[in-house]
Design goal:
Layout lengths: L6 E6 L9 H14 L9 E5 L10 H10 L8 E4 L2 H4 L3 H13 L3 E4 L10 H32 L11 E4 L2 E4 L3 H12 L4 H10 L12 H8 L7 E5 L16 E5 L8 H16 L18 E3 L6 E4 L5 E4 H4 L9 E2 H16 L5 E2 L13 H21 L4 H28 L7 H15 L6 H9 L2 E7 L4 E6 L1
Parallel strand pairs: 1-2, 1-3, 3-4, 9-14, 13-15
Antiparallel strand pairs: 5-6, 7-8, 10-11, 11-12, 14-15
Helix pairs in contact: 6-9, 7-8, 11-14, 12-13
């Protein structure tokens, strides 16, 4: 018995307080689909909760549904929605996706709004979508106006800054308030942002998002006027307020209702130091990035980040995250010393010393079958057959027969997957060829006339990465 398979798309945004809950929408959609002789399996119910319908880019379940519907052949030929506004509130985007689906034989049906085969059906659908889009635009304008008025009253806007919590529409100092005061005082006294970030990270202090403090986070705090009792807000309704351009006519800076954490004198002292730092001469921008033998290969064993070049009296490599205060362990090593250590190790490997290599990748440019997709499709068929049996659509004998056929197909697919993996497995490593190639690389590295770029390219042909371990000052070279 052939089953007509449909899908359901459920979206509930934060402004839809009067709508049915997602569970209720699914129930009503399934009832409506059943009257049209469609079954909606669980794996074809796509949900985006608490997400606006303004754009598809911010709706992961919607994008997955579209990708699934574009398969050949599509696993379902109809998508049910509670209302057309659930599909999209952007009429242009709605037309694009509906046309795309229609070309693949998939339609979109509303369970609550009129739709038939009459000549006026498409026109009615367009009018409904236009009204939904107008509602969204008008709502955004009203929200922006209300938020601007709230900011002008000095009330808390958005997420509380580090050091505060929101209580009764006001920022209230929390357990991190003293840390904020400490940062301002220490920076004014001459302590660098990297040192402050490292110190806070070592104490276990984390940002609102749970990240280790870094230079940029410290600077953002030092430039946030909330700590002297101000509220800043962009009348344009987006993140421009985070920029320290308070001369912008679209950025409000008003007295807030909350308690300042620092004095105006300390604020001014910190802003003056930041301005002085900005006015200092910057490094000279090069037309081309600096190339050196170990560029992109040397990594920190503490955090995994790349060691980058620092132009000092003695050219040095340092963990890039340590430079920003995110890594607690310095991995400073002179370029000359690192080059010599790597060259010495490669010479010893060429003479027979054991070495480490990364797992070999399987063959490239081989057309592979998506076995998981095929097996998952059969498992989905098996689940639908079971649901049909439980619903009374299939008899016991019918279900037993189709179950045996599907399970036999799954077994054959698994055997085919195993055979393809064995056929396309990476060939065994040719040790003689590797050592010959290593000797060619060494000839380039040992030649003082070769450029750093040529040496870097040669090294990359045999070396995947080099781990610099502290405090033992040892290097682990991993070959391809």
């Amino acid at each position: 018995m052939d089953l007509k398979i449909g899908a359901a798309y459920i979206r509930v945004s934060t402004d839809d307080q009067t709508e049915y809950s997602p569970e209720s929408q699914i129930e009503k959609i399934r009832e409506f689909a059943k009257r049209e002789n469609y079954v909606i399996p669980e794996e074809y119910i796509f949900r985006d909760d608490g997400i606006s319908g303004k754009t598809a880019m911010k709706r992961p379940a919607f994008r997955l549904m579209i990708a699934t519907a574009k398969e050949t052949p599509p696993p379902f030929d109809r998508i049910y929605v509670w209302k057309y506004s659930r599909f999209a509130r952007n009429q242009e985007e709605s037309l694009v996706y509906k046309n795309m689906l229609r070309k693949n034989g998939v339609g979109v049906v509303s369970a609550t709004e009129p739709s038939d085969d009459s000549p006026y059906s498409t026109l009615i659908e367009r009018i409904i979508e236009w009204m939904d889009e107008y509602y969204l635009i008008n709502l955004a304008q009203e929200v922006r106006r209300g938020m601007t008025e709230k900011a002008q009253r000095g009330e808390a806007m958005g997420t509380a800054p580090f050091g505060y919590r929101v209580e009764n529409k006001t920022f209230v100092p929390d357990e991190n308030a003293e840390t904020v005061r400490y940062l301002f005082e220490q920076f004014a006294a001459g302590k660098m942002m990297r040192a402050l970030a490292t110190e806070l990270g070592a104490k276990g202090i984390r940002t609102r998002r749970g990240n280790v403090p870094d230079n940029r986070w410290i600077k953002y705090i030092l430039m946030n006027p909330a700590y002297i009792g101000k509220i800043r807000w962009s009348t344009e309704g987006h993140a421009n307020y985070s920029r320290a351009n308070y001369d912008d006519k679209n950025v409000l800076l008003v007295d807030g209702k909350h308690e300042p954490l620092i004095s105006s004198d300390l604020w001014d002292a910190v802003q003056n130091k930041l301005a002085d730092a900005e006015s200092e001469p910057k490094y000279v921008r090069r037309d081309k990035p600096r190339i050196y033998m170990l560029k992109g290969l040397l990594r920190c064993d503490a955090c995994g980040s790349t060691l980058t070049y620092i132009s000092t009296k003695t050219p040095t490599l340092q963990c890039c995250k340590y430079s920003r205060g995110q890594c607690r362990i310095s991995h400073s090593i002179s370029v000359e010393k690192a080059d010599a250590a790597v060259l010495s190790y490669l010479e010893s490997v060429a003479k027979g010393k054991e070495y480490k290599f990364a797992p070999q990748a399987p063959k490239k440019d081989v057309k592979r079958t998506d076995w998981d997709k095929l097996i998952n499709a059969e498992n989905a068929r098996l689940k639908r057959a079971r649901d049909a049996f439980l619903d009374g659509t299939f008899s016991g004998d019918e279900y037993k027969k189709i179950k045996a056929e599907i399970e036999d197909t799954i077994t054959r697919l698994k055997e085919g997957h195993k055979a393809e993996e064995q056929e396309n497995a990476a060939p065994p490593r040719d040790e003689n060829a590797f050592r010959k190639k290593l000797l060619d690389v060494l000839a380039i590295l040992q030649n003082p006339a070769e450029s750093p770029e040529a040496k870097n390219q040669a090294l990359r042909s045999v070396v995947k990465e080099i781990i610099f371990r502290k405090p033992s000052n040892t290097l682990d070279v991993i070959f391809f």
